[in-house]
Write a structure and sequence with these properties.
The complex is a heterodimer of chains A (312) and B (98).
Chain A: H1 7-10, H2 29-39, E1 45-50, H3 53-58, E2 70-73, H4 78-94, E3 103-109, H5 110-115, H6 118-127, E4 132-137, H7 177-182, E5 188-192, H8 197-209, E6 214-219, H9 223-226, H10 233-242, E7 249-252, E8 255-258, H11 269-272, H12 287-311
Parallel strand pairs in A: 1-2, 1-3, 3-4, 4-6, 5-6
Antiparallel strand pairs in A: 5-7, 7-8
Helix pairs in contact in A: 2-8, 4-6
Chain B: E1 33-37, H1 47-51, E2 57-60, E3 63-67, H2 77-81, E4 91-95
Antiparallel strand pairs in B: 1-4, 2-3
Classes of the chains: A alpha/beta (312), B alpha+beta (98).
Bound molecules: thiamine diphosphate, iron/sulfur cluster (SF4) (3 copies) and magnesium ion.
């Protein structure tokens, strides 16, 4: 992969997300947005976000935290909006109205990406627009009060999958969106985590150098919805990676590469036990959910390693 | 600046002052603790600067110099993640005196 990123040098760049946004204390979404913009610092960028915590809280009328041109987009159409802008840009380029190398980046939540925005995202990918879509996955519709999404993990307590006597939290396992994106046969699809920032920034940089549609899925701990501490967002991201709940990998031109392999896979309990949304799983009657959770992880990790060995 | 009414809005309600959210001083959100910097334990790794969700770590010429309490929401991520020097953190959380 690309050369190591030097943080000291990077810290001399201007941050393109301002303070004063209204995301919760300790939220990961602005950390992810800030990192994406840092990795894109060498280009003029046009960004957009579908409705969700990041979009709502960075642009409360009449203030914006975005220092790059950024479009406030409806919940379901980030992919379509950015496709349109990118198409206009290409037309202008053809007519000689603009000659800058502009990069187009969408940053949306899991609800806006896995669920309601999936068809517009799929369309953008299939049509081959030259853009990067980054999903910050906090595993629920956080902005409207922690409703389950198709990204919500098995067993998680949310307001629409409430853990109690009727259901033990969410009864379905999560959708694997990164694979769905890779199945579009786009030139680049990847998974990243802010705790592993070097890997994450390199992936963004690499994606921006590739022409065509790119997708990066990033885990985004949310202390409100995950019922976790205010200060451990990065630690939770780290645990997600170390337990292989959130494998770091990329699929570039069809070749799968696992970009981080933990020396020892931590048991999933380490990730679950520090989050209130999984508290009810640590009882004899719900033990099976933790077992199933671990099985799903092991299976997916094996599959991924196999896919990698077949692509090299 | 806040528009007085709809007549003051730009076409498309475009905000022309990029990053004007800086006018909103979110430091008032801190409820319990604030981060305190101990320079002698700092290795200038810049992780606090990278991880702060509120762009409240002040860095000058590759050196960490302190916090911007006008914006810091007191989450404690910087203190949690600070590796410091020789096992001593350069950031700790301290109860805020109001
Ligand atoms: C068409 C439509 N339906 C519902 C809403 C209400 N709504 C706003 S944000 C949101 C949840 C966003 O969830 P996600 O994309 O996961 O982002 P998060 O808030 O979790 O960061 C919902 C349901 C909306 N804005 N538009
Ligand atoms: S609810 Fe979660 S995702 Fe939304 S701003 Fe708060 S911490 Fe961030
Ligand atoms: S994280 Fe700690 S050691 Fe690193 S720059 Fe910040 S204060 Fe210094
Ligand atoms: S406590 Fe949180 S908001 Fe304040 S400087 Fe540290 S990381 Fe930033
Ligand atoms: Mg979400």
């Amino acid at each position: 992969m690309a050369v190591q990123i030097n943080l000291k040098e990077l810290s001399k760049k201007e941050l393109m997300l301002s303070p004063g946004h209204r995301l919760c204390a300790g939220c990961t979404a602005p950390i992810i947005a800030k990192m994406v913009l840092l990795a894109a610092a060498d280009y003029p960028v046009v960004a957009n976000s579908p409705t969700g915590c990041l979009e709502v809280s960075t642009c409360i009328s009449d203030y914006t935290a975005w220092k790059v041109p950024w479009i406030h987009t409806a919940f379901e159409n980030a992919g379509a909006t950015l496709s349109g802008v990118e198409t206009m840009y290409r037309a202008w380029k053809r007519k000689g109205k603009i000659d800058k190398e502009v990069k187009f980046i969408a940053i949306g939540g899991d609800g806006g990406t896995y669920d309601i925005g999936l068809q517009s995202l799929s369309g953008a990918m299939e049509r081959g627009h030259d853009l990067l879509y980054v999903c910050y996955d906090n595993g629920a519709y956080m902005n409207t009060g922690i409703q389950r999404s198709s990204a919500t993990p098995l067993g998680a307590d949310t307001t629409t999958s409430p853990a109690g006597t009727a259901v033990p939290g969410k009864v379905q396992r999560r959708k694997d969106l990164t694979r769905i994106m890779a199945a579009h046969n786009i030139p680049y699809a990847a998974q990243a985590a802010p705790s592993h920032w070097q890997d994450f920034l390199k992936k963004v940089k690499k994606a921006l150098e590739i022409k065509g549609p790119k997708f990066i899925n990033v885990i985004s701990p949310c202390n409100r919805g995950w019922r976790s501490r205010l200060d451990d967002a990065i630690q939770l991201s780290r645990l997600a990676v170390q337990t292989c709940y959130w494998p770091l990998y990329e699929v570039a031109e069809g070749a799968t590469k696992v970009t981080y392999k933990p020396r020892e896979k931590k048991p999933i309990e380490e990730f679950l036990k520090v989050q209130g949304r999984f508290k009810h799983l640590f009882t004899p009657e719900n033990e099976w959910i933790i077992k199933k959770f671990q099985q799903d992880i092991d299976q997916e990790w094996e599959r991924l390693l196999q896919e990698e060995s077949q692509s090299s | 600046m806040k528009p007085e009414g709809w007549r003051d809005l730009t076409p498309g309600a475009v905000i022309l002052d990029a990053g004007n959210a800086r006018e909103v001083k979110t430091g008032t959100w801190r409820t319990v603790d604030k981060p305190v910097f101990k320079e002698e334990h700092c290795s200038n790794c810049m992780l606090c600067w990278l991880f702060c969700p509120d762009m409240a770590v002040i860095v000058k010429d590759g050196k960490m110099v302190g916090f911007d309490y006008e914006y810091c929401k007191g989450c404690g991520i910087c203190a949690f993640e600070c590796p410091g020097k020789k096992g001593q953190k350069a950031i700790f959380m301290e109860e805020e005196k109001k």
